[in-house]
Structures are given as C-alpha cells and as structure tokens.
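LOG
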Amino acid sequence: MTERAANTLMRAARLPVVLGTLGRLLIVLAALSAPPALAAWSQASNALGLRLAVTAVALLLVGWPVSRLRPLRADEHDIQWNEALAVTGLAFLLAALVMVWPLTAAGLGGVDALFEATSGITTTGLTMLRGLDKADPAVLFLRAWMQWYGGLGIAVLTVALIMRHHASARRLLETTGEQLTDAGARGHARRVSMVYLALTVIAIGAVWMTGLAPMDALLYALPAVATGGFAPSDQSLAGLPGATIATLSLLCIAAAVSLPLYARLPHRGLRALTHEPELIALLGAILITMLLLSAIAALASGLPWPQALAQGFTLGVSAQTDTGFSTVAVADLPATSQVVLMGSMSIGGCTGSTAGGIKLIRLLIIIRLVQLALRRTAIAERAVLQAQVGGARIEPSMVTATLQLLALWAMVLLTSWLAFLALGQPPLASLFEVVSATANAGLSAGLTSPELHPALKLVLCADMLFGRVEVLALLVVLYPPTWFARKRNP
C-alpha cells in the first residue's frame, strides 16, 4: 500500500470518545484519592488530607460530566486503536499530574513533586525525598498507595469497575499488554483485580509475620506487590531482618508472574505454572543474574561467598522484577555489576505482571527467531519452519511488535542518555539512571536527587512514562494525525 493510500484510510481520534473514557478514569482516580486522605487525617496530616480531598472533589466535578460525552451515532461507541492508545498514555500522565499538588505538602517543589508522582504511578521507585525514616507516615502511605494502584494499572481498574461497552473495554485492556482469549474484558479485569487483591493481602500478612510493625509491613508490602520499590527508609532494605528481606524478594517474584496465570490455577492446577515458558524464563533469568552478581561480588570485591550470594539474590530479584529494592548502594558496586543490572532491568518480568522492562516473552521471541535462522542454514531451502514459544506459534504481528518496541526503546534510551551527557553527567551512571527509569525499575546509581538538573528530572519523568506505556501510547498522543486526520464518514 502506498503512503498516499494509507493516508486516506487514517482516521483521527474522536474527542468525545477519548474525553468520555478519560472522564471515567478521573472518577476512578477520585475514588483512589480517598484512602490516602483518610490516612492523612488519621495521622493528623491535615494539609495533605485537605489537598487530597480537594483533588478528589475536583476530579469528580470534572470527570462526571466529561464521562457522559458520547459520539452522536450509537454505532460509533466502539473505541479505535489510536483512541485506546491515546487514552492509556494520557491516563498515566493525568494520574501523575493530579498528585503533584498533594505531594507539595511533603515539602517538595513542583518539579520534584511531579517526579515523585510519576515514579509512583509508573511503579518505578526513583525518589526525590530524603530522610524517609523520619518522614510523615501519611506521605509514605500516599507513595506506597500510588505504586499499588499504578501496579495493577488504571485501565484495568476502570474496566473492572465502571466500563460497560465490551469492545471498548477489550481494546483499552489490550493497550496495557493484557492478553484476552475467551474471557470478556470486564470479567478478565475483575479476575485480575481479585488476584491482585489476594496477593496484596498475603503480602501484608507475610511481611508482618517477619516481625515488622503493621504500618511498616504495609509500606513495604504494597510496593513489593506492585514491584514499585518505594521504601519507607533511605536505606531501602538495608537493616531489615534477613527473613523480611527474603520474604519481600519472594513476593517480588510472585508479582512478576503474569497475574492472569494465577486466575487459571483453579481450573488447570499446577500445570498452568509448569508449562508457562515466561515463568521458566523468569526463574532462569533471576538465577543467572544472581550468580553473575554474586561471582563479581566475591571475586572482584572480595566479599565472602555466603554474603555475596545473599546480596546477589536480593539485587538479582530486584533488577529482574524491576522492583528497585536494594541492600547496598548501587553506586558503590563495580561497573561490571552495574552493567549486569542494566541488562536484567531491561528484560524485566512476565507479560500481564506488575514488572516493567520489555518483558520476557519478547526475549523468548528473539531467541527463537535466532534459533530458526541458524536452523535454516542446515536444512533444505524449501523446508518450512515455524517459530514457536511454549507450543504457540509466533505470528508475524508478534515479531513486528517486538522489533518495533526494541527500536523505540533504543531511541528513548539513546536520546535520554545524550541529554545527560550534554549536561556533564558521568556516562555509566547516566546510562544506568536512564535504563532504570525506562524499565520502571527504580534502582539508582546515585544521580537521582534533589540536586539533579530540573531538565534531567523531566527527562527521567518522560522515560518513566514511556516505559510504563511501552512508548507507543505516548507517541500516539504526540502524533499530529491522531487528532487531525480524516474523521469517520457519517
């Protein structure tokens, strides 16, 4: 198809559809503002509680009338692909923006508050706050709460709670990476939400049983389930009991597994786990990362092997699941360890989980394609080979999507890294920070701080958003034909 022909087939996003869906998202965000507001008032943090309450009311006043917007024709209520992507990209941006004013109650400036909100909503875990051990518990809960609902995904919550149109709900979920097969969109979203809630309750109870106070258990468990990494301490996990660290690491692994997979356990049993290639790849990637980090710590840094293995396990889990917890300062690690961590963070966890990165399924697709290319060199030219992952055929559309994401990721990483270098930041630490932000991992090489140049803070904010929506959704928002192409024929 020629470019001219393609242009004639393009359809602009319809503002009533986009705004109507965003209006529903704003209603959900208003409801999500209630728990931290109540927590703030219970902790006598009246300024924070008031700001959250005003924000919730404002979201309702705007969201309710906007949610009533509809196309004029009844047969046009379904959502186009560019509209669904635009809604997803704008949803995370709006979710971060509406929390900027409340977070300024913690003493943050405007840019720092935006950074903190973006890091929370995207479950990244990079932070501008210091002195967390003495911080207001209400602020700490707000941070953990943002990561918790950001981990499940605002789109999933909206579909589960209030969206009724099946085709639109299905398309909105598909933009977040959800794989819908025989289930309706709303039923799928509700099952995933129930799994997430069950995992959260188990996490809070498990961390509490390791000896932490109830509030501390909550503040560590919520980010662990969201693979977010916000900790109520400047030292992250350092100083916690070994049982607590091990429990949190196991919870991060559980959260990096596809949530729909848990929903299938009652029907398929443990076979649903043992026959899942992404889960096997996740465990293998964690093991490889752990062994590499442990060997570097023991051989290059002279750390005793038991201590090196413990450190390697915690860091390996944190990087592979893109959680961001740590027991040591990443800036103090050898350059080799930092490179290993960057590779692990970039790959990430399973599709449909709360983990970030490019996702393991895409790595498996690339590996299978390479294997297929090698096999073709040793068989007859006319032989037909099919690339498969876990018994499922790799469709051409999957290959295209994988290569597209890898190219977009490379573009974002390179552009952001150049911005850091242009402002005189050290090369390796700059690359580490950019990779961590784009992978929504949250481990820091020491550059993320209130002293960082405001422009670079905004670069990292953009990276976190690009990583959370897998780049394309935000590019659709910025793409002029999304809004100015031809409209549907009436």
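LOG (cont.) second protein
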Amino acid sequence: MILKINVHWAFSQVGVKLGELTSVRTETLKHLGTTIKVEDMQPGDLVFFDTYKKDGHVGIYLGDGNFIGAQSSTGVAIANMNDGYWKENFNHRVKRIDYVKK
C-alpha cells in the first residue's frame, strides 16, 4: 500500500495522472506506459521485481542502478538493484510512463 501511494504521489508531482489512487496497484502499473529494454532505462522508469509473486514489487528507477521503493524492512528507501536480493529478484520488466507535460 505504501509504495502505490508513493508512486502515485511522485508521478502526480510532475503532472502525470496514473488514475484514482484506489485503482493504482503494482498489477495495474505493469500494464501502463511503454516497455523499455534494461539497457535503455532512465530515471523515472518503473522497475519490477519478483518478490512474493511475479511482479510483486515496483520501484522508481533513479539512475546508476538505484531505485526508490517501499520495503517492509526499511520503509521508503533507496536501494541498489545491482546487488544481492534486488539483483536476484529484478525480472527485467521496465515501463516508461508516457505523458505530455502541459
């Protein structure tokens, strides 16, 4: 719940509407935007991890292998997806939310 609020909030700060908060979930986020190759990731892209299920966790890519996410062990925090747990669980799903800034 915490991360969907943070993803929803973060995108709303730059004028991107992901839908009503009650309809935004990791499952719905993976169907939005454009699929991006891992080597083409840019800050702001959504990155997905197979944690307790396929695409069980989503984060916002920050660049240099880092993403921001909300984990039960750390709360909202920056983590590196090139090491340990996150590297093992990154499923290479990357989505770019397309929008036209007004």
